Amino acid sequence: MLRRDRGDGEPPVDWRRMAGVAMVGAVVGAPLVGLLYGVEVGLGVLVAALAATIAVAVRSVPSAPGEARGRLRLLIGVNVAILTVTAVVVIMALR
Predict the structure, then answer these.
(1) In terms of pTM, does the model score above 0.85?
(2) What is the rounded distance in angstroms from the CA atom of residue 37 to the CA atom of residue 6?
(3) 87 falls in which pLDDT band (50, 70, 90)?
């Protein structure tokens, strides 16, 4: 599925699709990793997933329709806030 040629001139494997797969894997895997290796590691995986989500969303703003740009920026802000809180918790837990 990742190597399918869509016939639109885009490369068969594009960064958005790969980032999406990584984000979903990290969000789904974070609780399992947390149970296996500790809360700090699970939250670290969640931080990575949130950072990838923010990166994809920021790169998507210019191509979003006009009415969706405001909502997308709001969701980027929410993700940044969650990322900040999670990163602070990880740093405090590692002390």
Answers:
(1) no
(2) 40
(3) very high
